[in-house]
Amino acid sequence: MSLSSLTKPWEPMSYGFLDPSAKRELRRKMLKAVAVPGCQMPYASREVPMARGWGTGGLQVSLTLINPKTRVKVIDQGADDSVNAASIRRFLARVSGAPTTLDTLDADLIQSRHRIPEEKLRADQILVLQVPNPEPLRPVEPNMSIARQMHGDADYGRMWLQLYEQIVRSGRVMQGASYPSMVNGRHVMTPSPIPRWDVPKLHMAKHLTILSAGREKRIFAVPPFTRVEPLVFDDVPYRVEEHGQLTCYRSGAEGFFMNEIPQPDGSALHEISDSEYGVKHIRTAQGEPDARGETWYQNGQMEDTP
Amino acid sequence: MQPIPTPDETRANQNFAALLGALSRPGQIHRLAAPGEAEIIQALIDRECRVFSADPGLGAMLRQTGALMVEPQEADHLFLGALSDLALLNLLSLGSDLYPDDGATVVIQAGLSQSQAQTLRLSGPGIETTLDVTITGLPNEFWSARRDLIRYPMGFDLFLLDGADVMGIPRSTMVEVF
């Protein structure tokens, strides 16, 4: 054994920012997360040049998966051009040399904050979701050691109690984003703060989804073709946001998840949340070839709601 | 300046993509960059790991990663080579209901080429309905022993290796023998 066999050649920076040992740890944890769908696996969560809580968990997963051929798309609440998405996309490209894209259909790796694109993802694509609070039990059990025991026992009665109380108080389930969902019939997970509209997209999807919380240091996954069932009562069906009838005032797209833009006169305009899908819609209307892919929702309806 | 991955990084990245693809789609065959366990070791193992190797040929490489060489019951990654003795399975760490991630990752040499031998039917996460695969070279009672050991979410995750071909069988996969 010589000294040179124990050292590596000098580099100005590790490829993809993270050092090899950080990547190996993430790889091992990602495999375990895939092996037990929906179960939160603790991991080290290294420092990245971004404040915790701004997508550092998703960023670390992306940095581990990325190579110079990976085409990356980053979205924030559906938009490619918000500050968070633009900064993460620029950082990923800068430390990996990977090409970037805004088109969902072109991307190999999609890192997202709080939305799943409207166009269907394929088997060769990986979706990375940034998760602020990975623990679905936190509202009902703030002690994380007890919460872990509850996951171990599949003791989720209080989750239903929480939903029941919402129905009793308000007449409907008030949980908007992060709707607790049962994965593979065993672990309840938070799907990250995606709207209720997006949760059915995870059910028996073709793509792999990795959810990573950098601040909370936990990672979990939804492999392809895995059951993801929102917690519901038999007699109170799961309802997505009533956006099926809304029309985007900019693109004219109809039947997708919308952002509400309040107007001075008290009314509201609606704008499609998946910005690139809206752009494609406008381009098609202007006579360019239709680049829109197949969408999960058609005419405001999920094709087969679980 | 365009960042350029080192050969080690490229190799680990490519092999991990194969491993992640294999484990998230059980029964599908994915290809490592080169044949052999060395590819998996290079992508996953470092001095935070406790490993067991039944194949003395891997000892030098494993020691160089800095991993602790331990007995099978303490190992988080096991390289069992061509498995002949089922008793080893009883020693595997299965994790706990609280920490399923402590369950072992097991790499075994097996035959993955299509033949008329024992057919298995896989179902579970990663498989749309069911998937029939042929796996040869494992002891007869292997799959029933696996079924008896796994108490989901406790369990171990398998990588079956045939040259550069790798197939993942996570603990969540149901295996029926025909």
UniProtKB/TrEMBL annotation, chain A:
Stretches for region Disordered: 284-306
Record-level GO BP terms: organic phosphonate catabolic process
Short name of any one Pfam family annotated for the protein: PhnJ
Record carries keyword Cytoplasm: no
Top EC group: lyase
EC numbers on record: 4.7.1.1
Gene Ontology terms, MF aspect: 4 iron, 4 sulfur cluster binding; alpha-D-ribose 1-methylphosphonate 5-phosphate C-P-lyase activity; metal ion binding
Compositional bias of kind Polar residues: 296-306
Signal peptide stretch: none
UniProt organism field: Tritonibacter litoralis
Protein name, per record: Alpha-D-ribose 1-methylphosphonate 5-phosphate C-P lyase
Keywords associated with the record: 4Fe-4S, Iron, Iron-sulfur, Lyase, Metal-binding, S-adenosyl-L-methionine
Family named by the database record: Belongs to the PhnJ family.
Membrane-crossing segments per the record: none
Role played: Catalyzes the breakage of the C-P bond in alpha-D-ribose 1-methylphosphonate 5-phosphate (PRPn) forming alpha-D-ribose.
Reactions catalysed: alpha-D-ribose 1-methylphosphonate 5-phosphate + AH2 + S-adenosyl-L-methionine = alpha-D-ribose 1,2-cyclic phosphate 5-phosphate + methane + 5'-deoxyadenosine + L-methionine + A + H(+)
From TrEMBL, chain B:
Annotated Pfam families: PhnH
Cited SUPFAM superfamilies: PhnH-like (SSF159709)
An MF annotation (GO) of this entry: lyase activity
One of the GO biological process terms: organic phosphonate metabolic process
Entry keyword set: Lyase
UniProt entry tagged with the keyword ATP-binding: no
InterPro entries hit by this protein: PhnH-like_sp (IPR038058), Phosphonate_metab_PhnH (IPR008772)
Coiled-coil region list: none
Gene3D superfamilies named in the record: Bacterial phosphonate metabolism protein PhnH
Protein name: Phosphonate C-P lyase system protein PhnH
Organism: Tritonibacter litoralis
Gene (name only): phnH
